[in-house]
Amino acid sequence: MPASILPVVPLGTSGPSVGAQGLGCMGFSEFYGPSAPAQARETLWAALDAGVTMFDTADLYGDGENETFLGPFVRAHRERVLLATKFGIVRQPGRRTWSQVRGDRAYIRRCADASLKRLGLDTIDLYYAHRRDPAVPVEETVGAMAELVGEGKVRHLGLCEVTGPELRAAHAVHPITAVQSEWSLFSRDVEASAVPTAAELGVAFVAYSPLGRGLLTGAITDTRELSAGDTRLTMPRFTGDHARTNAALLETVHTIAAQHAATPAQIALAWLHRRSRTHGLTVVPIPGTRRPARLRENAAATAITLSEAELAVLEPLAAKVAGSRYADMSSTATARE
Ligand SMILES: NC(=O)c1ccc[n+]([C@@H]2O[C@H](COP(=O)([O-])OP(=O)(O)OC[C@H]3O[C@@H](n4cnc5c(N)ncnc54)[C@H](OP(=O)(O)O)[C@@H]3O)[C@@H](O)[C@H]2O)c1
Q: pTM score, two decimals?
């Protein structure tokens, strides 16, 4: 595949310029099967070569291991990398499941210091609240995050899975640079509230799971082939009849991909890039991959322009998807809208 250099876009009105696509680093540590560190490092290099600048992690991923892994790479390329990490999801000790969401000041301050230490950095470029703590007003959480900006420990603030009204309330306390929520051809709930509010406020949208956690790539033909312990085996869209229904929806994506001599993953990403124009805001998808070849494939999606006729064919897919995004949707924005 020929080398492709990503265009550069502004991360909303308060953020820096970034490569139009980021890299989701979660899979380097867990959730989607085993990862080989050497291949993961090659993927990081391929990302840098392709013009990726935003590298996305969280203290949750690998229980801190993901940040520790990324640290040396980020420090070696500090001027070229925007490091985004997150706090807020408390794990059950020794398990992948969550026990709690926290957004109180003392917890945030502890998490920021711990992330900085693991990363070996003085400053986190973009710091997200991973979920909304229902027990703490969003203004209080963002107030505590803003203190970190004042102290130079954080450059820009972000929020994940917030509703439009929550984003507006947060933005009144301190400028929010980016909202990160699930957005893809298969998951479009954000378009009802968070996206229009972000567009109005000049906040960028970082689209997580832009490939539907792999569903939209066509590479998962039988979910029984996923390795034991893969989190997707517990997700409604990947199970039983839902998996079969969703796989059948991909036919449309395959047809359009063939017209562009492209892959389904590239069409899914091209569709998201086009959302930027449709909704009037910066959209930065952060596809996750552990493989350099797929990184290059995904980067090349920015060169694909979908026609109005193709967009019209893709439009109805999300409404036909079977199964919710998570088994428990209670901490998502959808549950609060
Ligand atoms: N804020 C949040 O709550 C939240 C939640 C979930 C994720 N995230 C962030 O978003 C990032 C991306 O989301 P995600 O990893 O859940 O899902 P995704 O990007 O939609 O899909 C990742 C899956 O697709 C596969 N893949 C990637 N490119 C491919 C290609 N060209 N062809 C075939 N398969 C391909 C990957 O496998 P290989 O690795 O084998 O290529 C992986 O299994 C994460 O890494 C994380 O940083 C944030």
A: 0.97
